[in-house]
């Protein structure tokens, strides 16, 4: 099933943005939790910030343990909210570089989309300057 649109709760957006702005020296990442409605709109309503496991500053990876913990968190939210929730995406930062995904980002996204066609990836390009406005 192809998605029609993606809606991210404002508080989730602010958490992700603040996480992305927490360091300009290395990439950060997290997992996105939500659900897909009957009109094929993905609703992101929670976030799980992840610790870095890759020592390279321009790489982020999701470990199986982190994915499992996020799935457990989604299950807890399902019971608390009374609606189905699951891990539906990931986000990461690109400090001082373009918003466009790297070949590694594309490969990572493709891997997760093979498991779930609705899995989304969001890149926060932070600490970048528009040289033309100076």
TrEMBL record:
Molecular-function annotations in GO: metallopeptidase activity
Domain of life: Eukaryota
PROSITE patterns reported in the protein's UniProt record: MPN
The protein's name: MPN domain-containing protein
Boundaries of every MPN domain copy: 6-134
Family annotation (InterPro entries): JAMM/MPN+_dom (IPR000555), JAMM_MPN+_peptidase_M67A (IPR050242), MPN (IPR037518)
């Amino acid at each position: 099933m192809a998605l029609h649109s993606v809606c991210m709760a404002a508080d989730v957006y602010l958490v992700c943005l603040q996480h992305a702005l927490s360091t300009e020296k290395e990439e950060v990442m997290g997992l996105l939790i939500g659900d897909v409605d009957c009109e094929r709109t993905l609703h992101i309503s929670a976030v799980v910030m992840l610790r870095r496991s890759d020592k390279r500053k321009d790489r982020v990876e999701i470990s199986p343990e982190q994915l499992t913990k996020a799935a457990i968190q989604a299950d807890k939210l399902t019971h608390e909210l009374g609606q189905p929730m699951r891990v539906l995406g990931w986000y990461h930062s690109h400090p001082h570089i373009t918003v466009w995904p790297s070949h590694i980002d594309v490969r990572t996204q493709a891997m997760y989309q093979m498991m779930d066609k609705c899995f989304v990836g969001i890149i926060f390009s932070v600490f970048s300057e528009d040289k033309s406005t100076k």
